Amino acid sequence: DDNGNLLFLYEIYEGKGSNIYYQLNRYLSNGTDLKQVELTIPDKNINSLKIGFTLDEKIICAGFYGGRSAIIGTCFFIVEPQNNSVIYTQLQEFSFDFQTIDISRRKKRKLQKKNKKRYLYNYQLDYLNIYNNNSISLVAEKRYTTEENNNSDPTSNDNDTKTKYHNDNIIIIHLDSLGNIQNEKAIIKRQESSTFRRTYSNIVIRDTL
Known about the structure:
By secondary structure, this protein is mainly β. The protein has two helices and 13 strands; from the N terminus they run βββββββααββββββ. The strands form three sheets. Strands 4, 5, 6, 7 and 8 form a five-stranded antiparallel β-sheet that branches. Strands 9, 10, 11, 12 and 13 form a five-stranded antiparallel β-sheet that branches. A three-stranded antiparallel β-sheet has the order 1-2-3, with no helix packed on it. A hairpin with a 5-residue loop joins strand 9 and strand 10. The radius of gyration is 20 Å and the shape is globular. It starts with 5 loop residues before the first strand and ends in a 16-residue tail after the last strand.
């Protein structure tokens, strides 16, 4: 931060059946004083978090909750650095329309009839942007791999497997200064490459993403 303190987020996963949560470690500018804050959601798993700072120097930790590879909504924490504690927490579930951005209308109607929720899989949180009014945006891309066997002879034992790296949809979630979802956007795309990489850039100019 601006005071020379170092901040790190650690994912804590204690094993099968345990909740996934995060820990914020702050090494103060003298390098010897360590402050730790647990970021937890009762009965929920935190998928990913990023760190940001408000204009009044509070710490924002925001991201997605759901599971290790699936998300269903956003989580938002405000940490007060003076007393080293979480002073505000907010959870917001994605709207049903957003949960079903990449499936057919037929499948969407089926889920709606059964009143079922739908998780979004393989999204990796890349950016947290904080604006002058302390609202934020979260930006993530869907990334995963598949294996393709290039051996045309089914009787051969030769293993000619090629890994495909997929970079698909980008999602952008806008939250107000209290972590309430204001807008959900998706850029629907399909990309493949031979390397695992981010395929876009995040630029904020005059409070516009």
